[in-house]
Amino acid sequence: MTSRTEVAAIIDHTLLKPEATPADVEALVSEAKDLGVLAICVSPSLLPVTDPGELVVATVVGFPSGQVKPEIKAAEAAQAVSDGADEVDMVINIGQAIASDFDAVEADIRGVVDASGSALVKVIVESAALSDDQIVQACRRAEAAGAGFVKTSTGFHPAGGASAHAVALMRETVGNRLGVKASGGIRSVEAAEEMIEAGASRLGLSGSAGILGGLSD
């Protein structure tokens, strides 16, 4: 079993509900500090975050559909970084991936990477909506475009969230060159450990307290 400290060190404590308020973000930050997690992830309209302390601040771009013009995604990323985001989790244009227009997918990612400056970019491929080959191609293009991570899911797609199969495939594709973030539907200690075993180096969780409460050092 993975230790509580080890798991906390790779958690993005996440609040992306459309009805989230600034007070909810304050509560998220307080809980994240108490839990000792690595990062928080909030919607871009809720930036800047007041007093994040040592927490990494992540936000989302083109979320959750990915069906946003590339120049809008890039502008959104630039604004988010200006507003204090350390990391940007962007959604690819899933339709382009399904249509095998991976040149467009790569260009979309590259625009966000360029606009994000020194901020880390994580690329959400929405793995449950793609075939294995499409997942592989999307990950390869994310790497080619300069992203630092690939990420399974938004958690909002009806096809589902993270799976150990997708995480393993993504890890196999990017090796140790990129990080792999598992997110979407991870609600138990067993699920979290399964994702880590499959190769996840970051976990996106909204129920961090419950999962960490089931672990010990």
UniProtKB/TrEMBL annotation:
<feature type="active site" description="Schiff-base intermediate with acetaldehyde">
    <location>
        <position position="151"/>
    </location>
</feature>
<dbReference type="Pfam" id="PF01791">
    <property type="entry name" value="DeoC"/>
</dbReference>
<protein>
    <recommendedName>
        <fullName>Deoxyribose-phosphate aldolase</fullName>
        <ecNumber>4.1.2.4</ecNumber>
    </recommendedName>
</protein>
<keyword id="KW-0963">Cytoplasm</keyword>
<dbReference type="InterPro" id="IPR028581">
    <property type="entry name" value="DeoC_typeI"/>
</dbReference>
<dbReference type="InterPro" id="IPR002915">
    <property type="entry name" value="DeoC/FbaB/LacD_aldolase"/>
</dbReference>
<dbReference type="InterPro" id="IPR013785">
    <property type="entry name" value="Aldolase_TIM"/>
</dbReference>
<keyword id="KW-0704">Schiff base</keyword>
<dbReference type="GO" id="GO:0004139">
    <property type="term" value="F:deoxyribose-phosphate aldolase activity"/>
</dbReference>
<comment type="pathway">
    <text>Carbohydrate degradation; 2-deoxy-D-ribose 1-phosphate degradation; D-glyceraldehyde 3-phosphate and acetaldehyde from 2-deoxy-alpha-D-ribose 1-phosphate: step 2/2.</text>
</comment>
<keyword id="KW-0456">Lyase</keyword>
<feature type="active site" description="Proton donor/acceptor">
    <location>
        <position position="181"/>
    </location>
</feature>
<dbReference type="GO" id="GO:0006018">
    <property type="term" value="P:2-deoxyribose 1-phosphate catabolic process"/>
</dbReference>
<comment type="similarity">
    <text>Belongs to the DeoC/FbaB aldolase family. DeoC type 1 subfamily.</text>
</comment>
<dbReference type="GO" id="GO:0016052">
    <property type="term" value="P:carbohydrate catabolic process"/>
</dbReference>
<comment type="function">
    <text>Catalyzes a reversible aldol reaction between acetaldehyde and D-glyceraldehyde 3-phosphate to generate 2-deoxy-D-ribose 5-phosphate.</text>
</comment>
<dbReference type="InterPro" id="IPR011343">
    <property type="entry name" value="DeoC"/>
</dbReference>
<dbReference type="GO" id="GO:0005737">
    <property type="term" value="C:cytoplasm"/>
</dbReference>
<feature type="active site" description="Proton donor/acceptor">
    <location>
        <position position="89"/>
    </location>
</feature>
<dbReference type="GO" id="GO:0009264">
    <property type="term" value="P:deoxyribonucleotide catabolic process"/>
</dbReference>
